[in-house]
Specification:
CATH topology of the largest domain: FAD/NAD(P)-binding domain
Number of helices: 3
Structural class: alpha+beta
Number of domains: 2
Oligomer: single chain
């Protein structure tokens, strides 16, 4: 096969010499289509944002053992950290935000913590061994995977991009890709 061909849901065909699968929590079904069974699960993270000054804090505070962090931002005071495994299709679970707020209120008794201005839920691609998947598909070696970074996607993105570029150029990456190879999982 000289080309990799992708057909979009709208029927558009994209062809190329190689492909990079870097679609975060949505990577598992794409890897499966290429013949790889990657045990990726979707960890859903939650946060809530309140008007600036609500918490009365001037810097981020990690409440050790409580599972959340507060952060004053230009857009308001945010509390985040609740997570759950619930896949891509289930709707947001507002109980996660309410549980965080119930833990936060006694820690900041002077704060008027009512309903948040905004709630957010995002998807994190999590792998059981906590290592990302970086490397070639078993059956389609010109398809390179770069996903599964969990909570560290933004901080590991630059190194992952350099590794992927080296793999695509058939060069040795500066970081040994062996621990991250997709073939570490059984079919």
């Amino acid at each position: 096969m000289d080309e990799i061909r992708v057909t979009t849901e709208a029927g558009h065909v994209i062809e190329g010499d190689c492909a990079v699968i870097a679609t975060g929590a949505w990577s598992k079904p794409l890897a499966r289509q290429l013949g790889d069974r990657i045990p990726l699960d979707t960890e859903r993270g939650y946060n809530a944002t309140f008007p600036s000054g609500t918490f009365g804090l001037t810097r981020p505070v990690f409440f050790e053992g409580r599972g959340f962090v507060t952060t004053p931002l230009d857009t308001g005071d945010r509390v985040g950290g609740a997570v759950e495994f619930a896949g891509l299709d289930a709707g947001p679970n507002d109980r996660r935000v309410e549980a965080m707020l119930a833990k936060l209120r006694p820690l900041l008794p002077e704060a008027a913590i009512a309903a948040p201005d905004a709630k957010w839920m995002g998807f994190r691609p999590s792998i059981p061994d906590s290592l990302p998947v970086i490397g070639a598909s078993r059956d389609t070696p010109r398809a390179i995977y770069a996903f599964g970074h969990g909570h560290y996607g933004l901080t590991q993105a630059a190194v992952t991009a350099e590794m992927v570029a080296a793999l695509l150029a058939q060069e040795r990456p500066a970081v040994d890709p062996a621990p991250f190879r997709p073939s570490r999982f059984r079919r």
